[in-house]
Amino acid sequence: MRRGVLAVFVTAVCAAAQSMPPEMREALVEEFHFTPADIQKAESGRPVSKMAATGRPDDVRMAGVILIKVSSSDFIKAYRDVEHFQMSKEVIRTGQFSSPPVEADLAGFHLPDLNRSDLVACHPGNCAYKMPADVMDELRTKIDWSAADANQQAERLVHKLWIARLTEYQRTGDAALAVYYDTKSPYSVSEGLHSLIGDETRLANRFPDLMRYVKEYPLHQPAGTENLFYWQEAAFGLKHVVRTEHMIIQELPEPDGTHYAILTKMLFATHYFRAAVEFNYVHPVRTESGEPAVYFLAAQRSYVDGMTGAKGAVLRRIANSRSPASLTENLELAKRRLERTR
Question: What is the Rg, in whole angstroms, of the alpha carbon atoms belonging to the chain?
């Protein structure tokens, strides 16, 4: 049986020097066709990222890995600071939500492509934004679109609805996630997320408590886990994407040091992405000189619009080229930031 790529984090046996942990190497070779040269490159401290075939055009899957000379505790401290760690060429800004979230968390954030004509024209089955039908109705009926401050009214309403939706998710879990009505076929974000992670049986076997929590949140929170919620504006394609993310970090004490498993669910996106998850793993090792270091694995999977048909074939070719390159750049950026602060 083939191993799922997300099941790569594993042995509690201390890796020799800076060699990649055996099961991490095995998964990258089997699932992403990493070559011996790729493994050697990663072990030398350079990032490597590759795509994996999924069998469906809209299912984009990739993974990357890099060796960073930093302790796992220092790594996770930096990683928790999402407003700085998440920044990249694509990610323009990030903000963390309070606990509980409040509208002030979005103060000063202006939606990048709030378009009056697009919003007024939105109706179930045809909308320039991904949103539920009831939100489309509120934006059409509760805004005075003839007023000079119509865009400001719309932005305030969106902020209010955004916080209400996230608060409800924190109370009831995936049942509060949107059903998008931007196309003729409604799309359930909850069903998309469960589909993305549902076939990762080895991940479920290795981290049963974490994966149960991911699926049944907010129930059954395991010991050693924490939740972070944040928003982002990112530049993908022709439009900027605004999205909401839920990050779950699990601390895993092992004989060779503290490991971390991190699962991030995309709860909402205004464009392009129907559902997305990211699994990261932080595996401590020692360099040949005895310095602390970590292998940082990033595995991403998403359902993306516009990847079918003749036009979609072109977009897939572009994605297959640019997506791994972007992940590689982000891994290298993380390395530079963390090693510079040592």
Answer: 21
For the chain, the farthest-separated pair of C-alpha atoms sits apart, in whole angstroms, at 68
What domains lie within the chain, and their CATH numbers?
22-340 (3.30.530.20)
DSSP output for 121-187: H-BTTB-SS---HHHHHHHHHSS-TTSTTHHHHHHHHHHHHHHHHHHHHHHHGGGGS-EE-SSSS-E
DSSP 86-103: T-SSSEEEEEEPPSS--G
CB 241 within 8 Å of CB 272: yes
Over residues 268-324, the pLDDT tens digits come to: 999 999 999 999 999 999 998 889 999 999 999 999 987 666 555 555 665 665 788
* Single-letter amino acid code for the residue at 34: F
Please indicate, yes or no, whether the overall pTM of this predicted structure exceeds 0.85: yes
pLDDT single digits (tens) 128-166: 999 999 999 999 889 998 899 998 999 999 999 999 999
